[in-house]
């Protein structure tokens, strides 16, 4: 595509994150192209385009099934809403570089000449491992306040330090992040937690004040002490960071949020009596808090419900070896159980490292075929009606009782189940 633009007499370069990733030797997630060709020219030159931001000079070109964001060199007018420029003026390569956010993402690459064009000092900062805003950091963050979160994300993902003036500007303007939409904040938070080094990213958010603005419910975790015999690692925040530090790159959003919030209700639920510390009710209260936070961040209903499930039941697996067979089978068959098991593994490793329950559950899963986890019921409501029962709330109790005995292996066929109901609960007719 760069070659095609060049052949038509235009300047064209790869730009931004894909250049940074190339220099780091990692595969880029997407490719942006910067050019002096105007949007209408780009649309004329390429048959498959989408005008996602034509008035800002941005056209998406689909080539071989892959999208390329092609943007015209531009200089931005003032940002009046803290998100987008009020207007753009098509300009030069130097003006285009000056309007970008961070030096490590402000470089260009000429694939035809195999040359990196660096007008902002990005190459030196990349070598030094520094995230530095281009120009005046306060101005860059006033233009788009989400850049503060992006800076934290880059520092966490790449293992870089945030340059002092840039860090000071983030801390000074953290309270302005509230002007950014909840969806954009939520998306950045997910990337911080799933793109590598989430523990470092969350600690940076806490230190610079962004966490206080985004998820203030997490702050009390750092002052919430735990019993040393169960949690030799220290307070709840340190425990949470240790758990997050073990998350793999590309983990699911639900697992990341589940781990982040699994102990969020420990501070309000903490009680101490006669030297004994307890956190009774923190799993249920935590599920409620997690749901409220995720609603605030405009995450999907599925994300809210799955994370609430993970938080609510993250301690239940420790009781698995003592469960009756029916209870264990029900738990193993739950939607999301594999993710719950994974969360419990991280949780245990971040505290006392006892994993006996984890291996027990893994062996239980391996010993059962998927279809065996959801055995067909031996009887149903129609059978109860034929036995002479009147439909009502009692149906659920009887059917659940029969299913438990089925899962326990005490009832093996329909005839046994019907006989049990007649013997235990009465009934008038036979099968």
**CATH class descriptor name of the domain at 1-128:** Alpha Beta
The biggest sheet, with number of strands, parallel, antiparallel or mixed sense and barrel status, is: 7 strands, mixed
Oligomeric status of the shown chains?
single chain
The whole-angstrom Rg is 28 Å
**Number of contiguous helices:** 22
CATH topology of the domain at 1-128, anyone? Beta Polymerase, domain 2
Report the uncertain regions: none
Could you tell me the mean pLDDT? Answer: 88
Q: Which structural class matches the secondary elements?
A: alpha+beta
Net shape: elongated
* The CATH homologous superfamily of the domain at 1-128: Beta Polymerase, domain 2
- Give the % helix: 40-55%
Please give the alpha-carbon distance between the first and last residues. 74 Å
**Spatial order of the strands in the main sheet?**
3-4-5-2-1-8-9
CATH architecture of the domain at 1-128: 2-Layer Sandwich
- Percent strand: 5-15%
Give the beta-strand count. 13
Describe this structure in words.
By secondary structure, the chain is an alpha+beta fold. Among the domains are: 1-128, Beta Polymerase, domain 2; 376-425. The chain is 49% helix and 11% strand. The strands form 4 sheets. Strands 3-4-5-2-1-8-9 form a 7-stranded mixed sheet. The protein starts with a helix and ends in a 6-residue tail after the last helix. 38% of the residues are buried.
Fold blueprint:
Layout: H1 2-7, E1 12-15, H2 17-24, E2 31-35, H3 39-45, E3 49-53, E4 58-63, E5 66-72, E6 74-76, E7 88-90, H4 93-98, E8 108-110, E9 115-117, H5 122-128, E10 130-131, H6 137-143, H7 146-158, E11 161-162, H8 164-173, H9 182-194, H10 198-208, H11 210-214, H12 236-245, H13 253-261, H14 266-269, E12 271-273, E13 276-278, H15 282-296, H16 301-313, H17 325-332, H18 337-349, H19 356-366, H20 381-386, H21 393-408, H22 414-425
Parallel strand pairs: 2-5, 10-11
Antiparallel strand pairs: 1-2, 1-8, 3-4, 4-5, 6-7, 8-9, 12-13
């Amino acid at each position: 595509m760069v070659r095609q633009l060049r052949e038509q007499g235009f300047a064209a370069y790869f730009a931004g994150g894909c250049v940074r990733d190339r220099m780091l030797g990692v595969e880029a997630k997407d490719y942006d192209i910067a050019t002096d060709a105007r949007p209408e020219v780009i649309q004329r030159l390429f048959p498959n385009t989408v005008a996602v931001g034509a008035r800002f000079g941005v056209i998406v070109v689909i080539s071989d099934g892959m999208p390329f964001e092609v943007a015209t060199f531009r200089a931005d007018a003032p940002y009046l809403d803290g998100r987008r420029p009020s207007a753009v003026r098509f300009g030069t390569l130097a003006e285009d570089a000056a309007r970008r956010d961070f030096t490590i993402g402000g470089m260009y690459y000429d694939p035809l000449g195999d040359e990196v064009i660096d007008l902002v000092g990005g190459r030196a900062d990349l070598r030094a491992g520094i995230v530095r805003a281009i120009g005046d950091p306060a101005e860059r963050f006033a233009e788009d306040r989400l850049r503060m979160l992006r800076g934290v994300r880059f520092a966490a993902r790449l293992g870089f330090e945030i340059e002092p003036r840039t860090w000071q500007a983030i801390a000074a303007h953290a309270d302005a992040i509230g002007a950014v939409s909840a969806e954009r904040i939520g998306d950045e938070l997910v990337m911080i937690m799933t793109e590598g080094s989430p523990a470092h990213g969350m600690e940076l958010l806490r230190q610079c004040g962004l966490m206080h603005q985004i998820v203030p419910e997490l702050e009390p975790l750092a002052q919430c002490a735990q019993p040393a015999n169960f949690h030799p690692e220290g307070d709840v925040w340190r425990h949470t960071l240790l758990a997050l530090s073990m998350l793999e790159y590309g983990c699911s959003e639900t697992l990341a949020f589940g781990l982040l919030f699994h102990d969020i209700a420990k501070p309000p639920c903490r009680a101490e009596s006669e030297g004994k510390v307890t956190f009774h009710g923190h799993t249920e209260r935590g599920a409620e808090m997690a749901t409220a936070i995720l609603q605030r961040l405009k995450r999907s209903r599925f994300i809210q419900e799955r994370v609430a499930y993970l938080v609510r039941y993250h301690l239940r697996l420790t009781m698995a070896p003592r469960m009756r067979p029916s209870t264990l089978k029900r738990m193993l068959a739950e939607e999301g159980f594999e993710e719950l098991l994974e969360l419990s593994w991280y949780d245990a490793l971040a505290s006392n490292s006892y994993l006996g329950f984890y291996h027990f559950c893994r062996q239980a899963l391996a010993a059962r075929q998927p279809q065996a986890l959801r055995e067909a019921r031996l009887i149903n409501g129609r059978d109860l009606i034929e036995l002479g029962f009147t439909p009502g709330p009692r149906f659920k109790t009887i059917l659940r009782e029969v299913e438990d005995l089925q899962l326990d292996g005490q009832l093996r066929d329909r005839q046994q189940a019907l006989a049990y109901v007649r013997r235990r609960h009465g009934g008038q007719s036979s099968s």
